[in-house]
## 1
Amino acid sequence: MTIELGANRYGKSAIRVVRVVRGQDRHAVRDLTVAVALEGAFEAAHVEGDNADVIATDTMKNTVYAFASDHLEGSIEAFGRSLAEHFLGFEQVARSTITTREHRWVPIAFDGAAAPDAFTRDPSITRVATVVADDEGITTEAGLDDLTVMKTTKSAFVGFPRDRYTTLPETTDRIMATQVSARWRYESDDLDYDACFARVLRTLLEEFAAHESPSVQASAWILGRAVLEHHPEVDEVRMSLPNLHHWLVDLAPFGLANDGEVFVATREPHGLIEATVRRAE
């Protein structure tokens, strides 16, 4: 019997780094969680216990801290690229992947203006970027997590199959709530990533507000198609849309009507709809 090592990679995850950008009149906070993953000629470490080519994960952590000082001036995509290129420079590394999540801090409104040095954490959205560098070049993927949105009308679910286990009633008017996770891939690296992210986010929000949803599956298609139609720099969108159910409460035992006004919100169990929308070859 022959035994061999298959695909493998290693790295450092959950590297927390905060940089305070101290401008002359006001400060800004950059709050990141970074993951580094390397692939390459590391077989000897696994099968022979030889660490001669193993870049210590502690070194990866320290590199992220140092690059936060020298390279965190712009987008997280550019920051990830600088790290990915650095680690690809090691002879034994064939591919480096940098995933960065940015946690948003916004100035506190104070005395009719934005405070120059006091902030509140905004958990409503987490920006994400993944940069992969290998011998074939660099691939950049942007995205977001935690974008929680709701439609109180213009959402339906009818015409689905029924069997002995089906109890869900059909509805032409329901609440649709979801916590969007999305990733999109750029066709070019010569972009203003901050501006691109802002435009894609605006498209997602505007299309979510405007469209009529016959199902969450249809919503995933409609949202993804809108991004591709409005943003030629994007060639693929992947989305994960949990269906965060809001069930109408039966108030009849209390002698009360409930005309679509009182609901119980649940998070578990939830439907999970995932889809990729891409440009045809």
## 2
Amino acid sequence: MLRLEEALQRILSVTPLLGPEAATVREAAGRVLANPAISSVDLPLFDNSAMDGFAVRAADLAGANADHPVALLWIGKAAAGEVFKGAVQAGTCVRLFTGSPLPNGADAVVMQEETRPDSSQPNRFWFLDTVKPGDNVRRQGEDIQKGAKLVEAGSRLNSGQLALLAAAGIQKIQVARQPRVALLATGSELVESGQPLSPGKIHESNRVMLASLMKRVGAIPEIFPLVPDSLEATQAALEEAMAGCDAVVTSGGVSVGECDLVKTAFEKLGGKLAFWKVAIKPGKPFVFGSAGGKFLFGLPGNPVSALVTFVLLVRPALAAMQGATEVSPPKSTGVLAEPLSNPGERRHFMRVLVDDAGRVRSAGAQSSHSLSSLAKANGLLDIPPRAALPAHATVSVLRWDW
């Protein structure tokens, strides 16, 4: 059996980088940026007001306070998107709103709460406090300067990055092509959800789970029909899947039983198996191989084993295909609310629940078929072999739905 780190290294060492394609910023959420995004403008584009108030010359308000206010002549206004065509001269002010360009001659903005109109002269305002040059002014280029790098290549674009690209006037970008992944479930006992069950049959659930995980990492799942336990059917399904996709993910059929046919069928198609056992629990019988530039990830059939092996070994490969800088599953730090232990010989990735306060506890039964605890869980805790973690220990939890 391979150590997890060695298995992952072997996968990533042969994972190809898919080519770039064009996308608009509006449709690029969650996509991986193929080339660095460079700003062609300053942000802000011009000096502007940080609030509703009045553009002034700071020197005119020297010594102003509530007991000794200073009066300035109101000579005009400029809403956001408008430019005051004159200039602020000594003893004058201009009404501004948040985002309004700073008029020529002004060097500060006074918030409107620090002013009051002169009841005897409608075009005069009293100022109740001093300001310094630059107060309440957003300076041109103080956030981003022209030529600066906005987003690094390899970044999975989030909402804040998309906002920054849009603010810089960027409409189209180059992103990595999303891997198209065939998703197969094998087993003669499997029946599509919603269909009636005869004795010995069960509803198949792995494909919907794995498809949702694939989408989170930017892959496009192609869900294939259920595959019965026959060598001919398994080989035909794999052949069709590899013809139209970048990779194939199967669940079931990768252990050592007479009905575990995925490895044999794959080899009959010319595939070469790199390895098929990983020293983890759950998920020991995991297959990785390649054929004609396409990759096979053979996951165990038990739902928890399928999820764990996907998160630890398939997810990083799909991220690497897109050139993502970060391929590992996200992590959060928490504190154990109870002691947890692993008496076994393999690392145990235990299903845990992390609450809003960062407390970590077991999600329930840890058998590899238990869907109830999987549904309650939101993370995996890596517990070394023959280890015991005490309550209140600080731990790192792998997350799959972030």
## 3
Amino acid sequence: MNARRTGAAEHLAVLDLLWPGGTRRLTRRPGRSNSLLVLPSLRSPRMLVPCSSPGAESMLVRFGRSRRHLLAQQVLSRSLRSGLLPLLPVWRLTETAPRPAGAAIEEHVRAHVPQAVALGVLLGPPRANAKPVLRIFDRAGHTIAYGKVGHNPLSAALVRSETDALLEIGRCPFGAFDVPTVVHAGDWRGLEVLLLTALNGKQRGAPSWELPLAAMYELAERERTEPMPVRASEYLADLRARVGGLTGNQGLTVMLDRVARHTADVELAFGRWHGDWAPWNMASTPGRVQLWDWERSRAGVPLGFDIVHFALQEQLVAHADAATTAAALLRVGGVALGRWYAQSQQREATVLLYLTEIVARYVADAGLVPTSALRDRLRTIEAVYSAILGHQKESYVDA
């Protein structure tokens, strides 16, 4: 396969690592039932949908909710159910023959998930931490497992981090939520691979922004510490070390110094957070929450980070202005963080430390060439931070 030659998006070339040695190639020729459709287009690939699995229709909800996307989804769904999908002149990856033994990701998956019959690949939009996510189907078309593939230093580190987090938290079950189980974690042809059980909860068509507080409280308190001043915490020392390791971002250092001074004597308790708790990383079953994507989870952060993160994502999706977002974060903190913090200074300190933490993450992920979407997100968070502290905005990513 040579994705670059056909003008596909650059990150599609990552799939050469999953099917090395030309074991799959791009074509528009119909008639191959074992092919993977490149959707929504070769110019903007977001997923590879297996023609051979009756359950592959479930992948199509990732297209989007516009009228054009819904129409395309209906056409493809009907074609898949009728068996006509392999005959459509859509760009696809087809197998070449013969295939060298051990030269395809399917073989590695089946060695650990014997029921696997077909797999799709979720690519998502191009971004620094993007990684192929495998959706694994059985013969009946049920999703039985997922896989993540780390193909560069950042994505490989994230896959290892998720493995460690799931193994750690999986030692004792939670009362309010469920997490995936690690089926396999290890190296395949120089790639970091993690295979997980599939959770069977259903996501809503539109995201629900109701805070799942029972589950958030339970996770945060799993490794809870006694309150201590922020200036004496291991968390602040770790955050300083991480920010200090980022070159050329003086604005972030200034932000951290201001927040550290502002919160120095505030007493906070520390525990675990998921790290990216949002509606798209969770589903619901009666009385429980199901939660995945644990790659950013860690212990030793101020209690409440997940709550503030969830609230920030809602404001970002709504494209709210800085003043509205700042007010929303403080308002959520005033209610949901009251379980741990009676004083407004404690709740504000949690919000400010979270904003510094998330900016540090985005700056680290940006590397030397941040995407325009990441730049926009950083500008928004800068303005929110400034609205809370009343400081002049700083730039946290070099131009």
## 4
Amino acid sequence: MPRNILLPCDQLCSAYLAGQSTTILARRYSCSPTTISKKLRLCGITLRLSRFAPAQIEEATLRRLYLGERWPIAAIAAHFGVSASTIGNHRRRYGIPIRPKHGEREKGRGGEGVKG
């Protein structure tokens, strides 16, 4: 059975409107940030936008940099100011295949590579 946590609207709202985050308030009241968010909404408070705006990276640009120009994921991430995992997530979402490692031949493109 869920425990009932006393979260007074007046104190919670004034602290949030003064700039405290749901995470800080959750620590103070020994609950989750989600619980704080729900209570703030019930108290009539509109929550602030997320700290991080979603990265807007066009599929064509990512394809060009990753497949065409063969930029490393880390370099693409630095270029857009995001993490490498964000670039990886976009790559998968757009259905961009993992490129072969440098020096490996792509499947279906001729015979065996010759080292030399």
